[in-house]
Inverse folding.
């Protein structure tokens, strides 16, 4: 059937368009020699991190591929293609991250230079730089899925591809998160506090590592994270569709998510193409308008295709529910973190009575802020479920939930474009300041930067909502896989295996985020020692003597090496714990016997459910309270309540520093962590079942 | 059958013994006139709070009783005794709290005075003061249950009694928590920070409110909390036992928890009687030894009774599992908060790099600390389940889980005795210091105080574990009630009603604790205004002129009134949300029809499950990180890392201040909150079912 070709064609178009945009960005001027110098140092540092990351990843991926090939491919006889599919997934994700980063470190300096000629000249460079990332993420992901599915016809191999992508996401998102905060904390504590030199001062050995961090965490990490969610949402629906069939199917339900994803890429391409801003325009509005427009185009395109292919309109309805829920979640989340809303203002006011009250206030609003998105995900998934369950037939409900996640994530091309725009303009602003450009240029860079924050509020809501719906459909996919192998298996909350699994599951996101945050502390300590050493041992560095330069590369290296080292224990724990719950649970279940003979499988279901609940809680809490503390500080810095330097400001800085690892390290890693756990469970589910049936 | 008389007889014995201990404490000397003066002021303040609390409670209880009588008693025809049973529950709990508080505010000053004659003279006064609370809690609770059950034979009316007790717990625990932190923050911010007068200075108008707070939150609140859990655990097992029958039952399974609870009271009486300490003895060890001894006695007594009455030994096994799990949870929890363990030391060390790092470190260890208790509750409940499910027969598993909670909670008499000892000696120390007693007396008071903290670590673990197991069995009781009314109803995690209910449920503890913490902030603000007013308007107060006294009563009044006012919105929300999930869910379910006709009931099951998960997470996180910050500060105050006044100390004080509302207000209220929600669900379940069957 010809329609499914939409997926690879749209994917190829996205890749080609992103290559075109790459050359567009690269053809702009890099500005003054000083600007080029700063930009080269950032480029070098970013590449150094990526190099380390890719080496570590390669080792990890090869080991996992061997395990998968032996355990799933040979032992279970599911075919040895699983190993290559896994590797292919991580390579595609790494490639998207590499391209995005390469363009980001080019776009930043070029945006800064173009800002001299006005907002409308600078904006396209930054936005198209972001679009390269967005389009290569969706392009490479969808192309990879198409290649595997067309050549083998097996959704399970797409699952392997997805699992490979999740490994990359773990390294890029959690590792990048540790990296960026290590550099940030180290640079600030020695530079600003001990040496009393300004932020971003070139004498500080960690300054480049700090600048690199923004690119590593926000560009490459976020890209890998959404690559991961995007692929996972598609594969979950493919697996759920495998067991279903329509009475008059014009097209297989397995390929429908691919068609919809292809339409999403087309909608994103249109969205990216139409985003532009005038000389006096508002770039924030332009970005949001682009997102809304993309949504409308997608809703239209999917409606036409659903109608033409004679699929039930209920499936289209579920997809639309996902998109609408995403926007509502985005808008409500925005309320809790925006600088001009009550929570941020109240938190800023509470800073007047000290740092502790600032922390309690921000934490409390963070707790409250969970309510709207949780309600949104809950109601959204239930509506999507019932539209399909009642509109099509029994069993289609979970397919509808999966499709609502696909709906949200199919416009990822546009979302990532807007998201990657943020760190590019942030970096551009930094370069403009460091290169001593004119006041009005910095002002334009500021306005571009502010737009990034506005856009981020909406896209962050999308990302959280999409991740929530994706993990729900991954849980459903896990259930579908085990049921296919072992018959009906229910995750009854009152079953002791499910309940105990859930209690262990809820502890995992807490454990993972704590280990990651403590890892930042340990790594920052190493960094601090190195910065102090350089100031002590390099003569003339502190005094800023002409020609004396710190050893930037060494700091980048320490941050990178340490980040990967601190990432290892928590990553190992979540993978091992997931397998342990399944296999140990199954071992106990078998000694108990019927009706508990599938206890391990059920425990793993409860464990995934528990980790979804707890993961959503902590992801929302950490992202929102972190953003809130940041904006409460900015509110004071804008001149309110005594302004910069006041006691309230000092208290707000404490809150902001607490919020940094919350929102940049631990919080954003949780999505990835839960996806990894769900994919481990789904990937190894047939093995656990085989183990169960062995007895 | 005569054995069940163990319950009322043991309960009466406990009440009589606590009256005897009350007179013992009261007969000791109150010391110098200055001591008496301080103690009288605390007494007056505590009574003022209780008066307000009881008036507010009375209004609340009467309204709820009318609703229950109409909705459950008349409309459903379950009998109008439900109203009086509800009122009786709250009155019994209030009476136990009143007695405990009355003796605590007498025991503190008498302990301080007796400390002049040595440790072995002071210890019994403090411990027996605590024991009055412990024994009146179990005595009045068990007596109340016995009266209702013997006179009506209906476990549902015991559920009403339990529901009444939970209303009292909500007011005493959450309201008391807001009260105590309001007074603390207000007194510190104006007194120490603005006026630069020492802590506990009699010129501070809020000093009495602050001293009262310890009694209100830690004595009366904790007593009401454990009264609530104790009754809830017993009634849950009674309800679960109602539907079960043994092949050769010598005794009804409904009355067995009463018999075991009676044995628990006897074990506690023995435990309380044997606790003593020599002149050079270690009071902390004496308290812990008393707890262990009580456990052993209970295990022995229950074994004998199980054997003699020919009950399956599996039930006794489940009870023992509960006790053992409680002790293991206590010991592991202790590790994460103790002053001489790695987490507290590391957190103290991290204070050297500032307040933010101290917060992140303490928060991270708090996150990790969840793991052992969650694993303990999970494994404990699963073992208790399977011992009974496999050892007796299908359906007995949840009965076993309930029995393990009863096992933990049946020694509540001893636990509360040790727990209430803490604030008594804490107050004694404060009085000794304020009254200017000799160094060696203060030293003895210090040692008594330290012992309180040691004992608290174990008992806190018990309380958390017991609450976890109790809410699990309450969820099972809810299921048993709806199944009795409407047939088999499963809480399948993949059912959209259950899942959406769970997503809403996990948001509730977060919402509740945030509102309570923000309530502290608002109320403290009112308090601060009043303290400033008094310093401004009362001539000679600041200078400490002879005969000039602040208006203590007014501060007590503001704290009390505000606490109850701030408690109203979160309490209303949790009750209304619980009913809304059930009824609105059921309304939607009925418009969908089979197989979702009981969707509302299932949504409520998921909601309770979700709130249990999230409630446990936040209760553990807040209690443990709060305790950890407190001890990290104390570690520095003991002279490490620069000692009091150093930068590290200032940073640690911020952590401690953040931890205060965590561990004293929000964290401990969560147990109560979840119990209230579970009881609301169980109490109104028949109404939701009736609503379901109406269609």
């Amino acid at each position: 059937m010809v329609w499914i070709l939409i997926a690879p064609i749209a994917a190829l178009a996205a890749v080609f368009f992103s290559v075109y945009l790459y050359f567009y960005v690269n053809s702009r001027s890099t500005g003054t020699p000083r600007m080029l110098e700063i930009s080269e140092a950032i480029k070098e540092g970013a590449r150094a991190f990526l190099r380390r990351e890719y080496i570590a990843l390669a080792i990890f991926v090869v080991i996992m591929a061997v395990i998968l090939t032996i355990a799933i491919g040979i032992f279970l006889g599911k075919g040895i293609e699983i190993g290559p599919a896994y590797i292919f997934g991580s390579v595609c994700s790494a490639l998207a991250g590499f391209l995005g980063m390469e363009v980001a470190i080019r776009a930043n300096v070029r945006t800064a230079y173009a800002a001299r000629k006005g907002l409308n000249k600078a904006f396209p460079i930054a936005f198209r730089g972001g679009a390269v990332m967005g389009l290569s993420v969706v392009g490479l992901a969808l192309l990879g899925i198409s290649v595997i599915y067309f050549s083998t016809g097996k959704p399970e191999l797409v699952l392997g591809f997805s699992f490979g992508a999740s490994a990359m996401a773990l390294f890029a998102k959690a590792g990048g998160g540790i990296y960026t905060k290590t550099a940030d904390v180290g640079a600030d504590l020695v530079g600003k506090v001990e040496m009393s030199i300004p932020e971003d001062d070139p004498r500080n050995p960690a300054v480049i590592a700090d600048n690199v961090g923004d690119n590593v965490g926000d560009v490459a990490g976020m890209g890998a994270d959404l690559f991961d969610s995007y692929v996972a949402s598609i594969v979950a629906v493919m697996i759920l569709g495998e067991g279903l069939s329509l009475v008059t199917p014009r097209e297989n339900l397995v390929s429908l998510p691919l068609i919809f994803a292809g339409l999403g890429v087309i909608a994103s391409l249109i969205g990216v193409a139409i985003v532009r801003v005038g000389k006096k325009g508002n770039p924030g509005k332009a970005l949001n308008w682009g997102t809304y427009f993309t949504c409308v185009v997608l809703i239209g395109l999917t409606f036409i295709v659903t109608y033409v292919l004679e699929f039930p309109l209920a499936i289209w309805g579920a997809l639309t529910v996902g998109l609408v829920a995403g926007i509502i979640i985005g808008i409500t989340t925005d309320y809790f973190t925006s600088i001009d809303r009550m929570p941020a203002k109240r938190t800023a006011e509470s800073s007047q009575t000290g740092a502790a009250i600032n922390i309690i206030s921000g934490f409390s609003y963070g707790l409250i802020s969970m309510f709207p998105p949780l309600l949104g995900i809950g109601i959204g998934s239930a509506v999507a479920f019932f539209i399909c369950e009642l509109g099509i037939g029994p069993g289609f409900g979970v397919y509808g939930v999966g499709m609502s996640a696909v709906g949200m994530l199919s416009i990822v091309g546009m979302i990532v474009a807007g998201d990657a725009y943020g760190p590019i303009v942030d970096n551009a602003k930094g370069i403009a300041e460091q290169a001593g450009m004119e006041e009005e240029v910095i002002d334009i860079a500021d306005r571009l930067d502010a737009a990034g924050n506005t856009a981020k509020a909406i896209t962050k809501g999308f990302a959280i909502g999409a991740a929530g719906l994706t993990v729900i459909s991954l849980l459903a996919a896990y259930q579908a896989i085990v049921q296919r192998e072992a018959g009906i298996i229910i995750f009854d909350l009152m079953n002791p295996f499910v309940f105990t699994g859930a209690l262990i599951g809820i502890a995992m996101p807490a454990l993972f985020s704590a280990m990651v945050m403590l890892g930042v502390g340990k790594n920052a300590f190493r960094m601090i020692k190195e910065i102090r050493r350089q100031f002590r041992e390099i003569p003339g560095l502190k005094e800023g003597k002409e020609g004396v330069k710190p050893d930037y590369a060494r700091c980048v290296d320490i941050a990178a090496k340490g980040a990967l080292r601190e990432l290892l224990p928590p990553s190992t724990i979540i993978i091992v714990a997931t397998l342990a719950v399944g296999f140990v649970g199954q071992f106990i279940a078998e000694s108990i016997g019927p009706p508990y003979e599938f206890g391990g499988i059920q425990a793993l279901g409860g464990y995934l459910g528990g980790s979804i609940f707890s993961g959503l809680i902590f992801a929302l809490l950490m992202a929102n309270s972190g953003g809130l503390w940041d904006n409460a500080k900015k509110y004071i810095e804008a001149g309110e309540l005594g302004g910069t330097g006041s006691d309230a400001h000092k208290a707000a800085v404490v809150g902001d520093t607490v919020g940094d690892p919350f929102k940049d390290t631990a919080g954003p890693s949780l999505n990835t962590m839960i996806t990894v756990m769900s994919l481990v469970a789904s990937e190894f589910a047939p093995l656990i079942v085989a183990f169960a049936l062995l007895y």
Summary: The longest helix of chain A spans residues 439-486. The radius of gyration of chain A is 24 Å.
